[in-house]
Every structure is written in structure tokens, then in C-alpha cells.
Write a structure and sequence with these properties.
Blueprint (H helix, E strand, L loop, with lengths): L2 H10 L7 H14 L5 H7 L7 H6 L5 H23 L1
Helix pairs in contact: 3-5
């Protein structure tokens, strides 16, 4: 999904003063501080390269299942936070 797609979604939701990169940054902090996700899982969830060239040459896993679990937890966190602000 492109940056512009996310920005347009925020505009349609009438959310002001928020950047797409801010969401990514917020996710990274949450993954580390709240979810206690391993660095590699959090970084790969953001599509970042992890480790040196040598480490990446030997790392064959995409950690997909661990990323899937983390993203499910993130979805619950974001949804519950939004619901509490509406009430």
C-alpha cells in the first residue's frame, strides 16, 4: 500500500495532524514496549532490512507466522484504543 493511499484514508476518516510515518513509528514503539516483540519481528513487519549483509545471507525465514501474530495484536490494540476514544 502506498503512502498516498494511507494519507487519503486518513483524510476520508477526517483524522488531522497525523502522518503515515507516524503510524509506523508508533507501531515500532508499541511492538518493543508493549508487545515485547523481538527486534527482527518488529523490523520485518515494517519491511525493513534486518542485520548485516552476512546475517541476511544466512537468514532464510520471513518470520511470517510471528509477524502475523504481532499484526493481530496491533490490530486489537489500535481498535480498542479507537473505541475508547469514541465513547
Amino acid at each position: 500500500m502506498s503512502n498516498m493511499s494511507m494519507l487519503m484514508l486518513l483524510r476520508r476518516m477526517k483524522i488531522e495532524g497525523v502522518t503515515v510515518h507516524g503510524f509506523r513509528s508508533m507501531f515500532r514503539d508499541w511492538a518493543s514496549e508493549v508487545a515485547n516483540a523481538p527486534r527482527e519481528v518488529a523490523e520485518m513487519s515494517l519491511a525493513h532490512k534486518v542485520g548485516s549483509d552476512v546475517e541476511r545471507a544466512y537468514a532464510r525465514s520471513d518470520l511470517l507466522e510471528r509477524r502475523r501474530v504481532l499484526m493481530g495484536e496491533w490490530s486489537q490494540f489500535v481498535s480498542s484504543d479507537c473505541k475508547s476514544k469514541k465513547d
